[in-house]
């Protein structure tokens, strides 16, 4: 585990907000193993330690929100109804196997432009899904984090005013850098991430 906390990072500031802290979770390559454009529930495989880590963080008081780009819908590779079936299976398995209740799932069905940039306010690295969930659930983005396997996930977290963690599971291949794309911390596994976030939550709670 390598920690790279930026100077002035929001999670070391005193916080007096009423909103809940949240972990925003990328789906493919982060929560579950990435099977490109899969909507077959039979092919769902959790990343090692993901379910247990989410159970720990739920107990620590975090809201849990899945935030996922699903351009396969815009590309005509599957329908929203097929995605809904997959989503129901995923949430049911998290509940049954780990007693984890996901507070919300935010999904972007739109495609990128020819350069790979979002054409909508919600496709990561845009922050629209995070800000939408924050409004709906009363979340405190300044005490929240996005975790994903790509720097687009990190950037989406930062653009929303939250932190950004990288799970090094091999999903990032381009490594396009930028000031919003530097992870606050990077982890090789979910257990290390959960321990780090528990520490941050405890430190926030101890703030005057
Ligand atoms: Zn979108």
UniProtKB/TrEMBL annotation:
It comes from the Bacteria. InterPro entries: HAD-like_sf (IPR036412), HAD-SF_hydro_IIIA (IPR006549), HAD_sf (IPR023214), Heptose_bisP_phosphatase (IPR004446), Histidinol-phos (IPR006543). This is D,D-heptose 1,7-bisphosphate phosphatase. The keyword Cytoplasm applies. Pfam families: Hydrolase_like (PF13242). Belongs to the GmhB family. Coiled coil: none annotated. CDD domains: HAD_HisB-N. Keywords: Carbohydrate metabolism, Cytoplasm, Hydrolase, Metal-binding. NCBIfam families: HAD-SF-IIIA, Histidinol-ppas. Gene3D superfamilies: HAD superfamily/HAD-like (3.40.50.1000).
């Amino acid at each position: 585990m390598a920690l790279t906390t930026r100077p002035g990072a929001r999670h070391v500031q005193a916080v007096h907000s009423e909103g809940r802290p949240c972990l925003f979770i990328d789906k493919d390559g982060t929560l579950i193993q990435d099977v490109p454009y899969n909507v077959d529930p039979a092919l769902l495989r959790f990343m090692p330690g993901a379910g247990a880590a989410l159970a720990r963080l739920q107990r620590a008081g975090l809201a849990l929100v899945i935030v996922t780009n699903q351009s396969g819908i815009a590309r005509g590779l599957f329908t929203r109804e097929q995605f809904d079936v997959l989503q129901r299976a995923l949430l049911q398995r998290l509940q049954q196997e780990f007693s984890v209740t996901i507070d919300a799932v935010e999904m972007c069905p739109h495609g990128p432009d020819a350069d790979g940039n979002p054409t909508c306010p919600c496709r990561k690295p845009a922050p629209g899904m995070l800000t939408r969930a924050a409004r709906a659930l009363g979340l405190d983005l300044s005490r929240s984090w996005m975790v994903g396997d790509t720097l687009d996930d990190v950037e989406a977290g930062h653009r929303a005013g939250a932190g950004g963690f990288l799970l090094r599971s091999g999903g990032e291949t381009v490594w396009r850098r930028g000031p919003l794309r530097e992870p606050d911390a990077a982890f090789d596994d979910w257990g290390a991430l959960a321990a780090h976030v528990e520490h941050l939550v405890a430190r926030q709670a101890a703030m005057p």
